[in-house]
Structure formats: structure tokens, C-alpha cells
Design brief:
The complex is a heterodimer of chains A (73) and B (762). Chain A is an alpha+beta fold. Chain A has 1 helix and 3 strands. Chain B has 762 residues and is an alpha/beta fold. Chain B has 4 domains: 91 residues, no CATH class; 138 residues, 3-Layer(bba) Sandwich (FAD/NAD(P)-binding domain), CATH 3.50.50.60; 249 residues, no CATH class; 73 residues, YaeB-like fold (2-Layer Sandwich). Chain B is 44% helix and 12% strand. Chain B has 35 helices and 22 strands. In chain B, the strands form 4 sheets. Chain B has a 7-stranded mixed sheet with strand order 3-2-1-4-7-6-5. In chain B, strands 8-10-9-11-12 form a 5-stranded mixed sheet, with helices on both faces. Chain B has a 5-stranded mixed sheet with strand order 17-21-20-19-18. The interface between A and B is large, with 40 and 43 residues. Strand 1 of chain A pairs antiparallel with strand 18 of chain B.
Chain lengths: 73, 762
């Protein structure tokens, strides 16, 4: 089986929980989209309501730098 | 509030060509790449500036390498060169010209010769014969040897010593010995003791691909020969030859002849692809104030010693036009002269697919026009950058991110915070006070005091418009948004009875003057006319006056502000680069939004001119200087005895505009406004507030997230027990980390990203 490509993976390791659903977030499939481009990633996701969490470090680090790169395309 | 459409895709195929002629005309104004006058005067095109720099640095090896590029026999040339370079040396206009020829001689004597050639150097196939012994053929033989032709010299002399004597009789004994050694080191075959007659010519014509001869030899062989001096060629006979007068002419002749040999060896017309040959004119600008050491260092009988040569070479001022680079923090940051940067920015706009590496640079210019004032040729970098921005916007290639906050702020100014009212008691007014967005955001009390004062002391009614003049749309290259702002103002001005506009900000005044067909006056002119209000208060310490870039080229405004300061009783200290040469504070052209690093450097370059407190007449300058920790006041704060105090953060700037509008509506027009109050308490840690300011996150963005959380209950709890909620607002997703309090929420952190994120199936 081919290994699926993921640009970034964060495993919440049970440290985060969904307030609404009362369950721990799990490592789940998510997608970033910007200016016609999509990037499959694995982020902390609520298994019940699908809330996808983007931590501060990710938003200001990798996400910001990819945004800049796409803006300059 | 309305949203600005994000560029849809990275795959944009539109391109608006700026004509090459237009671009060339713009870049040609920059003379940075023009040769220095000494090099331009040298037909051999010696890079005199680099040569003197190497010599001044004591690097004689490098200096000699540079000289050997044009001089195959450096001592032969330097001993007799007529040195037209010295006649053009700009230092010579104030004192003695730099002794370039004597320095070339010193370098040739003292420098380490390069070891070109060697056994592994592959030779060309075409063979060349050179007849005769004079300076021209000596240099030509050297040039051709450098080009790796198998070359044979035929001469009447008995050996190479006699040959060199015949060629270069002007050499001293010491120089002769050195050059003889150099000649022996060259891969040149000699046929000595030959009669240079028709028989020999016949022989070499049969055996060599290209033939060259000294002028006298050619004349003897072909008395009626018509020699083309620009090619050094007797075309009929394909004989490379020519008459030369003097050492430099011989060296230049040899250069031309060597190129002709190349073309003949390739069976091409000798006129082909010759490039520019010989001396040329230079348009370079030189700041002669750099010339300090004006007296030539005296040389001994044998020429300069190394120490003397270093001292003399150090007198060169390295002519280079860097007037704009000296003053402009933006150009300094990119370390590029405007001619080059413009070409790169132009290319950036022409890219259909792929990276646009100059977006950031193009958006970092303050569009302030300082470069045009300091440039001896009026280079207009602002026009280049603005045209590029407009071009990128019109082809949908401009990213929204660098300017979105400012553009949203402009929409805020002209929507929620907008106000247009005639003075109570008037339907049509003679005047309208237009303080602009920054004054209302930064110093609302000053705006209020000024408006009340104008209402009281001017006759005919003073209306008020709180809003944006459209400059932000202009700076972002978004003409449509700029025009929307103008249309709004035109409509309101018509309703107010077409009053004369009294602007508080020089940039607004400029924008409105240039785009609205209305009379626009600065409040400074009005105050000079009607006199200072009561309560005007000078700064206790002497202060530096910072001229606004909006007033560049506007001597009347600059003078009026000084008069106003004088009237208040301020003591102004002189600073360099004031008046028309004043640098931008970093707000202009939206630099503060698009490139904070460059904006900070601009602010720094303003403040480094003086340690004194700063008085400005643009509120954005006042704000940026205060943010840097400098005591900074707007001249109107002094006029009205107000103090806007510590600079507000981005949320306070919006809040100030709304509060001012509501306060004035209530107090002057007796209109109650519905202020939206939160039904919970919202507080921030100091760290959160600071980070929001840095990350351009408004309190209203935070409120949107929390409202959404209150409605949906969606949030996550992190390992510290804090809650994190999010909400997509416009083109960004905002995240807020908070904790519930008894009455509401305490915000700990906030961040945002522009990418959308969603769960993916599979």
C-alpha cells in the first residue's frame, strides 16, 4: 500500500480535549487550503465534531512561511 | 464591514506589459552604473577605480592583475602612457589629480606578475605572423599571445633584447630588464635577422592564416595602402596594420588590431561584433566634498615606493553616485542602486507563472520621493514601485496580505468611523475640516480642540468630515479603492455646499489637491492667518522639526510650519536632511504594514539625525517616533496645548476614531449613538495585548471569536486547562486562548493564519 503524503503531523497525545464533545482530540486528517493550493496534514481533530486545532507555533511557523511563499507565486 | 477579495489563485496568466522603452527611460536616469570619468577617458577601458582601490588597500597583486587586463607590457605602457585619465580625474578639480600613471608604473614594478599560460594552455589553430618591431607590433604580439594564437614575430633585429629596444626605446634600464624578462616568458616565436621585404611577405602569406605588420613595414610593402584606422586593417590585402602616435595610441591600436585578427581568423567581416571601443563620455555624478587630500604625494627619482603609492592611491575618492543610497533607508536595506532595483521590480511584474521574488521589495518603498530630490537626475523610485504595484493589482498577481490591514482600516474610516456634518446652524459651509484617519486615531482630543476652535473663529461655517482621503488605496496600488474614497468625499463635499477643505495632514492635503478639484488649505496656513489659539504651549527643550514627506516640494507648507513653531515659542535645532530632503518615518507607502523591518530602519534613520524631541506635522510621524520611545509631538498638540500621550495600539486607534465620532455627534450635533456594549467583561493579559498589536489582531477580531464560542460552545481545552476557540473573519482565521472569569473572559494569547483549514475524509 502506498504511503499517503502528509506535509505536517501533530499528535495531540491525549493532552487536548474538545470542550463541546468532552472527548480527547486525536491525530486526524485535515487539509490546509490557500490560493488554490491544498496541503494534506495530520492535526489534532475532535473525533466527534471534527474541530481541527491549529496550534500557535504551527500558525506562526510553517503555515506563515508557506503563506508567504504562495503569496509570492 | 465589507471584505476585500483575496486573490483567487497562484495560477494567474494575465500580464500587463510596461513598455520596455518606458522602463529603459526610467532606469537610464540612474547613473550608478556609469563608468568613473577616469575609466571613461581611457581607450583601453582600465577599471581605474578598482585599480586604485586595490593599490590603496596595498593589494598590488590584484592591482597588477587589473592593469594587466589592458596592458600586456605594463612597464612599457605606464612609462609612456599619455594618461588622459588624469585629465578627467575629479579630484583634479579641487587640487592635484591622482597620479594614476605613476601608480600604474609603481604597481607594474612592485606587483607580483600573474602566471598566465603554462604548458597546459591550449593554443588556437589559426596561426599569426607579425612583421616588424615597433610599439604597435610589440603590444599586438602580447595581445595575440594572451588570446592563445600560435604567433611568430619576424624582425630585422638580431635578438629579443635588440627587438625590445627597437620597440620601446623609452624604457629605463631597470624597466627594460623587467620587461625583457616578461617578453621572454611569453609564448612568442621569433624569426630574427629577417629582411622585411616582399619575398618574406610572400612566404608568410603562404604559411600563416593571419598577417600583421608594423605601420612602417606595411607602408614599405604597400605604399598606396588604404588602412582603416578603426579596424587597423588594409582590407584589400587583409593585412592587419596601422600607424600609431604615442604609447597609448599603440596600445589601443593593438587592442583594435587583436579584435580584427579574431574576426579574420573566424573568416568574418572585421566590422562584426566589436562592441564599444575606445574612450567614452560618462554621465556619472560625483560628490566632490569627499575629496580631502588634495596634494599629490611626491615621488622619488625611481617612482613611488609602495608606501608612497598606497598614500597616493588613497587620495582617490572612488567616484560613485550613491546620493540616494546615502539617504534612503529602503535602498540601503536592499543594497541596490535604483537603476538595478527598478529593472528587477519591472521583471517581477512581467512574470506570468512562478515566484515573484521582488514583491516584498516593491511593497517596501515608502513612495516618499526623497530619492527624487537627492538624485542629481531626479530618479523616481516611488513611481517605479507604485506603477509596479498597480500593475500587479490589475493583473490579479498582487497578494492581499501585505496591505489588507491598512485597506480594511481605510474601509473602517470610511464606513463605521465616517462622519460628515455641517456646522450646526449652517446648511452650506464655507469650510470643512478634514483631520484624516491618523489624527483621529492617534490624537482625538487634538482633533476635537482644533475643530471647535475653527468653528469658533472662522466665519461662514466649518463642516467636519472624519474619514480617509484615499491615499491608502493609492499606496496599495488599488486605484479602484482610492477612487471609491474620492467619490464618497466628492458626494459629501457637494452636500456640504462645496466648502474649502482645511486639511490637518500634508499627505491628505496632497491627495485631495491632486485628485479632487477643490481648494485645499493646510490648517497651519489657517492658524497663521487667524492667529494661534489660546493655550498654545512650546516644548521646554529645543526640538528637531521633522518635515513630512507629504510636504515634499511644498516650500510654503514647510515655511508655514516653521513660522507656527516660532509663534508658539519653540526652539528648533537644525538637522541634516530636512525640508525637501526629509526621510519618511516608515508609514508612507504602507511600508509599516508590508515590511516592518524596513519601516523600522526608516524610523531609525529619521531619529538618528538628532537626540532632541521631535516635532512633526503628520500624525503618523508623531506616532512612529513615539513608538520608538522618542519624545514626539504633533505641532497641533502644541498649538492646542493637548498631549496625545503614549502611542495607541492598533485596536485603540480604531476605538479612538469611533469614540471621537460618537463624542462629537453627541456634544455638537446632539445625536445619540448606539454604542455596542458587551454583556460580559473582556480583559487581556498585558502579553496578549502586546502580541495582538504585533500580530495585527484587533479586539474586534477577538470579540468575534468569543461570540462564536458563546454561540456554538466550540473550543478545545489545552493541557494547562485554558480554552482555545477560533473563527474565520474575512480572509483570516483568528484563534484566541482564554480562560473564563466570573464576569466574562480573560484573553491570554491570540494568533491567526490566512490558510483555511478543514477536516479531510479518507
Amino acid at each position: 500500500m502506498a504511503v499517503e503524503k502528509n506535509y505536517y503531523t501533530i499528535d495531540p497525545q491525549g493532552k487536548l480535549s474538545c470542550v463541546k464533545c468532552g472527548v480527547p482530540l486525536v491525530k486526524g486528517k485535515a487539509k490546509f487550503m490557500y490560493l488554490d493550493n491544498g496541503f494534506p496534514v495530520e492535526l489534532p481533530v475532535c473525533p466527534v465534531c471534527g474541530f481541527v486545532y491549529v496550534p500557535e507555533e504551527l500558525a506562526l511557523g510553517k503555515v506563515a512561511s508557506v503563506e508567504r511563499a504562495l503569496e509570492d507565486k | 464591514m465589507s471584505q476585500i477579495r483575496e486573490r483567487g489563485s497562484t495560477h494567474v496568466y494575465k500580464v500587463n506589459k510596461i513598455s520596455k522603452e518606458e522602463m529603459d527611460a526610467m532606469t537610464a536616469r540612474c547613473v550608478y552604473e556609469q563608468p568613473p570619468f577616469c575609466s571613461a577617458a581611457c581607450p583601453l577601458k582600465l577599471d581605474v577605480r578598482a585599480f586604485l582601490k586595490a593599490a590603496a588597500d596595498g593589494d598590488f597583486k590584484k592591482a597588477l592583475q587589473l592593469y594587466e587586463k589592458v596592458a600586456v607590457f605594463p612597464l612599457v605602457l605606464s612609462a609612456g602612457c599619455e594618461a588622459p585619465c588624469e585629465g578627467k580625474c575629479r579630484v583634479g578639480e579641487k587640487g592635484d589629480a591622482v597620479a594614476i600613471r605613476a601608480l600604474e608604473n609603481a604597481v607594474a614594478r612592485l606587483g607580483e606578475a600573474s602566471k598566465l599560460g603554462g604548458v597546459f594552455r591550449s593554443k588556437k589553430r589559426k596561426t599569426v605572423a607579425v612583421l616588424g618591431a615597433d610599439l604597435f607590433t610589440l603590444f599586438l604580439a602580447g595581445e595575440l599571445e594572451k588570446k592563445a594564437y600560435p604567433i611568430t614575430v619576424f624582425c630585422a633585429e638580431a635578438d629579443d633584447e635588440q627587438y625590445l629596444r627597437a620597440c620601446a626605446p623609452h624604457l629605463s634600464d631597470a624597466a627594460f630588464a623587467l620587461e625583457l624578462k616578461r617578453l621572454k616568458g611569453k609564448d612568442i616565436q621569433f624569426e630574427f635577422d629577417r629582411r622585411l621585404d616582399a619575398a618574406l611577405y610572400k612566404e608568410i602569406k603562404e604559411n600563416f592564416d593571419v598577417r600583421c605588420a608594423a605601420g612602417a613595414v606595411a607602408k614599405a610593402l604597400f605604399p598606396d595602402a588604404a588602412i582603416l584606422p578603426e579596424l587597423m586593417l588594409f582590407e584589400e590585402e587583409k593585412l592587419v596594420c596601422g600607424e600609431c602616435v604615442g604609447v597609448l595610441d599603440a596600445a589601443f591600436g593593438a587592442k583594435k588590431a587583436a579584435l580584427t585578427v579574431d574576426r579574420l581568423a573566424q573568416n568574418l567581416d572585421a566590422r562584426n561584433m566589436r562592441g564599444s571601443e575606445g574612450a567614452c563620455e560618462s554621465r556619472l555624478y560625483t560628490d566632490l566634498s569627499e575629496a580631502k587630500a588634495l596634494e599629490r604625494v611626491a615621488a622619488g627619482e625611481d617612482g613611488y615606493t609602495k608606501e608612497q603609492a598606497v598614500e597616493e592611491a588613497s587620495r582617490c575618492i572612488q567616484c560613485r553616485c550613491e546620493e540616494c543610497l546615502k539617504s534612503c533607508a529602503y535602498l540601503k536595506h536592499y543594497k541596490k542602486h535604483p537603476g538595478l532595483l527598478s529593472r528587477e521590480i519591472y521583471n517581477n511584474t512581467q512574470i506570468i507563472m512562478g515566484d515573484h521574488p521582488l514583491n516584498k521589495a516593491m511593497n517596501a518603498c515608502a513612495l516618499c520621493g526623497q530619492c527624487t530630490v537627492v538624485c542629481p537626475n531626479d530618479f523616481d523610485m516611488a513611481r517605479v514601485c507604485l506603477m509596479a504595484r498597480r500593475n500587479m493589482v490589475s493583473t490579479d498577481k498582487m497578494p492581499l496580505a501585505p496591505h489588507e490591514f491598512a485597506l480594511m482600516d481605510m474601509l473602517f474610516s470610511n464606513n463605521e468611523a465616517f462622519l460628515a456634518r455641517p456646522q450646526p446652524g449652517y446648511t452650506a459651509c464655507k469650510y470643512v475640516f478634514f483631520p484624516g484617519c491618523q489624527a483621529a486615531a492617534i490624537a482625538p482630543a487634538t482633533v476635537k480642540a482644533a475643530y471647535l476652535d475653527l468653528c469658533e473663529r472662522l466665519e461662514g461655517g466649518v463642516a467636519l468630515i472624519l474619514g480617509c482621503c484615499g491615499a491608502i488605496g493609492d499606496w496599495a496600488g488599488r486605484i479602484e479603492m482610492q477612487e471609491q474614497a474620492h467619490e464618497l468625499l466628492e458626494n459629501e463635499l457637494a452636500k456640504l455646499g462645496d466648502p474649502v477643505v482645511i486639511a490637518l495632514c500634508p499627505s491628505c492635503a496632497k491627495e485631495l489637491r491632486e485628485n479632487l478639484s477643490r481648494e485645499v488649505r493646510g490648517i497651519w496656513d489657517v492658524l497663521l492667518e487667524i492667529g494661534l489659539p489660546d493655550g498654545a504651549r512650546a516644548l521646554e527643550r529645543p526640538a528637531a522639526l521633522h518635515d513630512s514627506c507629504g510636504a515634499r516640494g511644498d516650500a510654503a507648507t514647510q515655511a508655514a510650519i516653521r513660522k507656527l513653531c516660532e509663534g508658539i515659542g519653540c526652539t528648533l535645532v537644525d538637522t541634516e536632511n530636512s525640508g525637501d530632503r526629509s526621510p519618511c518615518c516608515g508609514y508612507g507607502g504602507l511600508t509599516a504594514y508590508a515590511n516592518r523591518e524596513v519601516a523600522a530602519e526608516m524610523t531609525e534613520s529619521c531619529l538618528e539625525r538628532s537626540d532632541a524631541p521631535y516635532i512633526s506635522y503628520c500624525m503618523a510621524c508623531r506616532d512612529r517616533f513615539a513608538r520608538q520611545g522618542r519624545e514626539s509631538r504633533h505641532v497641533l498638540e502644541l498649538c492646542y496645548g493637548t498631549d496625545a500621550g503614549a502611542p495607541p495600539d492598533i485596536s485603540e486607534k480604531r476605538c479612538n476614531r469611533l469614540s471621537l465620532k460618537n463624542e462629537l455627534l453627541k456634544e455638537i450635533w446632539l445625536e445619540e449613538t448606539m454604542e455596542q456594549k458587551l454583556d460580559y467583561a473582556l480583559s487581556f493579559t498585558p502579553e496578549a495585548r502586546k502580541m495582538m498589536d504585533e500580530r495585527m489582531i484587533l479586539v474586534e477580531d477577538v470579540i468575534a471569536v468569543l461570540e462564536d464560542f458563546r454561540a456554538s460552545g466550540e473550543a478545545i481545552r489545552d493541557e494547562d486547562g485554558l480554552l482555545v476557540a477560533r473563527k474565520r473573519v474575512g480572509n483570516a482565521t483568528f484563534w484566541v486562548k482564554f480562560s473564563p472569569t466570573d464576569e466574562g473572559f480573560l484573553v491570554h494569547r491570540a494568533w491567526s493564519h490566512r490558510m483555511r483549514v478543514e477536516k479531510r475524509e479518507g
